[in-house]
Amino acid sequence: MEPIIKLENFRRTYRNGLLEVHAVRGVSLEIHAGEFVAVMGASGSGKSTMMNTIGCLDRPTSGRYLLDGVDVGSLNRDDLADLRNRKLGFVFQGFNLLSRTSALENVELPMLYSRPAVPGREQRRRALEALKMVGLADRADHYPNQLSGGQQQRVAIARALVNQPRVVLADEPTGNLDTRTSIEVMGVFQALNDQGITIVMVTHELDIANFAKRKIVMRDGFVRTDEPVSQRLHAAEALAKLEAEQKAVHLA
């Protein structure tokens, strides 16, 4: 089976005057359908540059990036935007919801840029279905300030799913959340992955990375390790453990 994401000797160099910054130095990797991959690394490791390229927000200086068999480097700006909207869903640390727009309307937004256009009735149906997938069908008419941080992130995940993308890219999706809510959000990702949705997530937190199935660690522009998660965490078990620990502290 062909990989959804394929990097071939991918390099990205930035120029600042006479200075060259080699952000990524010859990375080759493949990600297949149904994987749940965590990408880790310190600041300056190259993980954000690699994720920007995977997200079709940047291009390789050399090497190739193929998204679902399409060579991204061969596309013009409009075709690149269309590919990104059809194939990728994005989840960000800061939620990026429109404050004066309901959860349902926030989820509908990516469909406004779809080609061909999605009829209004179909937009609503698909947005409600996406909210149902993340357990928020009953909050469709709520505004962001009426939702908790975890619920806002679920809306953001629903928005990422609404165009039925091949891959969901999550950039530090639990960075603004407390421990319990972080586990709950990872439970949503695990449930979606169990349904066959491919997820690639950037995180600096080892415990969050352990909810994934595969972990890639970058350093100095290279992939240093790429291996299955040996002691994978599962959200239900992690929540039960957290509740037991909190109960013990309370009783003490």
Overall description:
A hairpin with a 2-residue loop joins strand 4 and strand 5. With 252 residues, the chain is of the alpha/beta class. Helix 4 packs across helix 5 and helix 5 runs parallel beside helix 6. It contains eight helices and ten strands. It starts with a strand and ends with a helix. It has a six-stranded mixed beta sheet, with helices on both faces. The protein has a four-stranded antiparallel beta sheet with strand order 2-1-4-5, covered by helices on one side. The chain has a domain of 175 residues: Rossmann fold (3-Layer(aba) Sandwich), CATH 3.40.50.300. The model has no long low-confidence stretch (mean pLDDT 93).
Q: What would you say about this model in short?
A:
The chain is α/β, with parallel strands linked by helices and 252 residues long.
Features:
alpha/beta, single chain, 252 residues, 10 strands, 4-stranded antiparallel beta sheet, Rossmann fold, 6-stranded mixed beta sheet
Query: Which CATH class of the domain at 5-94 and 167-251 applies here?
Result: Alpha Beta
Output the number of helix runs: 8
Largest beta-sheet characterization: 6 strands, mixed
Shape: globular
Which oligomerization state do the chains in this entry correspond to? single chain
In terms of per-residue confidence, which ranges show pLDDT below 50 for 5 or more consecutive residues?
Answer: none
Could you say what the CATH topology of the domain at 5-94 and 167-251 is called?
A: Rossmann fold
The chain-level structural class is: alpha/beta
Rg is 19 Å
- Estimate what percentage of residues fall within beta strands: 25-35%
Strand ordering within the main sheet: 6-7-8-3-9-10
Chain-averaged pLDDT: 93
Number of strands: 10
How far apart lie the N and C ends?
54 Å
**Fourth-level CATH superfamily of the domain at 5-94 and 167-251:** P-loop containing nucleotide triphosphate hydrolases
CATH-defined architecture of the domain at 5-94 and 167-251 = 3-Layer(aba) Sandwich
Series of secondary-structure elements, N-terminal to C-terminal: EEEHEEHEHHHEHEHEEH
Helical residues, percent: 25-40%
